[in-house]
Amino acid sequence: MAGCGQQYALDLTARSAGTPVAFEQACACSAILCAPADAGRRFADWIRCDVNGLEQDAQLNVIASFRLLIRRLASINPVSRSIAAAISRQFAAWLEQADHPAAQAHVADLLSVAD
């Protein structure tokens, strides 16, 4: 088995036409909120030690990653779909109770998709 290379038990990679896609593209295709991919602004925030901007982007993207993971998990098969549904309910409850801006932004994003 070691000679076969990396073997994934569960591949959750976002793909388009068989090719992995960038995080921002996966979020856009799934209509999931994520932080803007502005490397210049992030570098400037880092140089100025503006931790708030970096932290906000990181929080937005961690939540977006989890939402992508849940959506991908739900698309695999009926068993994973039921697991994703259970996780999704708990995740939505956590988001609604969280008091940081990134969670509230995702709650607003989820509500806008539901409307």
Textual characterization of the structure:
- The protein starts with 14 loop residues before the first strand and ends with a helix.
- It has a two-stranded antiparallel ribbon.
- The relative contact order is 0.11.
- The chain is built from five helices and two strands, in the order ββααααα.
- It is mainly alpha-helical and 115 residues long.
- β1 and β2 form a beta hairpin.
- The mean pLDDT is 83.
- It has one domain.
- α3 runs antiparallel to α4 and α3 packs parallel to α5.
- It is globular and about 45 Å long.
Computed CA radius of gyration, to the nearest angstrom: 16 Å
Average pLDDT figure: 83
Proportion in β-strands: under 5%
How many independent structural domains? 1
* Structural class computed from helices and strand pairing: mainly alpha
- The amount of helix comes to 55-70%
What is the H/E order?
EEHHHHH
The strands making up the biggest β-sheet line up spatially as: 1-2
Number of strands: 2
How many individual helices?
5
Overall outline: globular
Distance between the termini: 49 Å
